[in-house]
Amino acid sequence: MTATVVAAVIVGLLLTSNGGDAALPAAPGGTSSAAAGTASATPTAAVPKPTSSPTPRAGTPVPTSSPTASPTPSPTPSPTPEPTPVSFSDQEVETFLMQLGAAGRTNDVESLIAWLHPAVFERYGEANCRDYLATTELALDVTVREVLEPAPWDWLTNDGEAGRFEEALEIEIARLVGSQTLVQLLHLVPLDGQLTWLTDCGDPQP
Question: What is the distance between the alpha carbons of residues 26 and 14, in angstroms, rounded to a whole number?
Answer without folding.
Answer: 16
